[in-house]
């Protein structure tokens, strides 16, 4: 909005030219998202408490978590608001990639919101069945993939894949690209959702991944930088820097209330919205495989669940004391804060590896 209102005024006052620069608008979007979070956070907490929207705790979870029962949940509403509002204020709204990213956050956030609402209404930690939730995610992913195929037919997008560490090869999957987008979006959404089990863990890790993709989105949208790094130059991707910057600010702001002991949980509303939108950004900037590296912590958490379930079904034995992985270390004697901070460090390392790999082609 500011871009459209203030850039035309450059003809009258040269200072307004600063609004043309993506770096300036991304920085302002980050600060705006942080401010929105800090201002609206206390109001949302009070409103959630007023309506008794409290977290239900898994009976089989660590006993130390039972004290968290009743903590306001659905805090993802704050995250979505703090991302979308600054994006609308600071991005070029003529850019279709911006609206696709916003739509991914809204749709996956809506699935999470319905799941959270069912948990609150039933007064138990059971919302959608796993099958129903997965089918909704697949539906959204399929629509997303079909939209990108349609955009390719209009010359607005290229569905060719970018392989890590390999230069000059860009395979096309045809209609299989729809299945690929479903895999990326559902995998990302569910991996973040599984990581959301300790105060500040998922939001801190999401902040690291969002910051990584802020850099990647800017590089992909800048012709000279993209050419230097040997990555695809996606001309419209630059505006996603504003969206990713908004995610960074929103995560910082939410962490203020979600740090231990948490005053508010993001719930599936937040984890699904963050995971789905991170997956969407990775697809749009054509760095889907880098999401696996940047979001390595999320991958480890998801793999721990898969391995635990597979081992128990096949061998009737468990690999971990409890899954996801963060619960294993809790039961091994680590304090919640120690697990969270050490997992943040791991997430930072994965983000740095993702950025370092951009030049390894």
What does this molecule look like?
- This protein has one domain.
- Helices cover 67% and strands 0% of the residues.
- It has 14 helices and no strands.
- Helix 3 packs antiparallel against helix 4 (96-122), helix 7 runs antiparallel to helix 9 and helix 11 crosses helix 12 (296-315).
- The radius of gyration is 20 Å and the shape is globular.
Précis, in short:
The chain has 14 helices and no strands. Helix 3 runs antiparallel to helix 4, helix 7 packs parallel to helix 14 and helix 11 runs antiparallel to helix 14.
* Euclidean distance between termini CA atoms: 38 Å
What number is the mean pLDDT? 91
What's the number of extended β-strand segments? Answer: 0
SSE-based structural type:
mainly alpha
What is the CA-atom radius of gyration, in angstroms?
20 Å
Main beta-sheet strand count, sense and barrel state: none
Elements, N to C (H/E): HHHHHHHHHHHHHH
- The unreliable regions are none
Number of domains: 1
Helix content: 55-70%
Number of continuous helical runs: 14
What coarse outline follows from CA principal-axis ratios?
A: globular
Query: Beta-sheet strand percentage?
Result: under 5%
Write the layout of secondary structure elements.
Elements: H1 2-6, H2 22-50, H3 76-90, H4 96-122, H5 130-153, H6 176-195, H7 201-221, H8 223-229, H9 240-258, H10 267-284, H11 288-294, H12 296-315, H13 325-331, H14 336-357
Helix pairs in contact: 2-3, 2-9, 3-4, 3-9, 3-10, 4-5, 4-10, 5-6, 6-10, 6-12, 7-9, 7-10, 7-14, 10-11, 11-12, 11-14
């Amino acid at each position: 909005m500011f871009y459209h209102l203030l850039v035309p005024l450059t003809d009258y006052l040269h200072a307004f030219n600063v609004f043309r620069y993506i770096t300036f608008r991304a920085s302002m979007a980050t600060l705006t998202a942080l401010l929105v979070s800090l201002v609206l956070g206390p109001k949302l907490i009070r409103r959630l408490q007023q309506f008794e929207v409290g977290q239900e705790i898994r009976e089989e979870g660590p006993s130390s978590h039972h004290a968290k029962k009743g903590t306001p949940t659905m805090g993802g509403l704050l995250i979505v608001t703090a991302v979308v509002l600054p994006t609308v204020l600071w991005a070029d709204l003529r850019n279709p990639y911006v609206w696709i990213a916003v739509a991914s956050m809204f749709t996956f956030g809506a699935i999470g919101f319905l799941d959270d609402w069912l948990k609150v209404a039933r007064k138990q930690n059971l919302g959608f069945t796993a099958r129903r939730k997965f089918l909704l995610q697949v539906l959204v992913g399929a629509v997303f993939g079909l939209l990108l195929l349609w955009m390719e037919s209009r010359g607005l997008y290229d569905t060719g894949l970018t392989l890590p560490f390999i230069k000059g090869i860009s395979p096309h999957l045809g209609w299989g690209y729809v299945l690929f987008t479903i895999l990326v979006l559902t995998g990302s959404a569910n991996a973040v959702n599984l990581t959301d089990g300790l105060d500040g863990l998922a939001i801190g890790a999401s902040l690291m991944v969002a910051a990584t993709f802020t850099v990647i989105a800017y590089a992909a949208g800048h012709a000279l930088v993209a050419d230097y790094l040997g990555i695809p130059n996606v001309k419209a991707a630059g505006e996603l820097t504003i969206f990713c910057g908004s995610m960074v600010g929103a995560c910082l702001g939410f962490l203020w209330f979600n740090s231990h002991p948490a005053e508010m949980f993001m719930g599936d509303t937040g984890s699904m919205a963050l995971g789905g939108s991170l997956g969407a950004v990775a697809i749009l900037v054509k760095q889907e495989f880098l999401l696996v590296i940047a979001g390595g912590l999320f991958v480890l958490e998801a793999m721990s669940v898969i391995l635990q379930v597979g081992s128990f079904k096949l061998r009737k034995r468990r690999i971990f004391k409890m899954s996801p992985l963060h619960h294993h270390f809790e039961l091994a004697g680590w304090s919640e804060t120690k697990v969270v901070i050490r997992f943040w460090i791991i997430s930072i390392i994965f983000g740095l590896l993702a950025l370092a790999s951009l030049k390894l082609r």
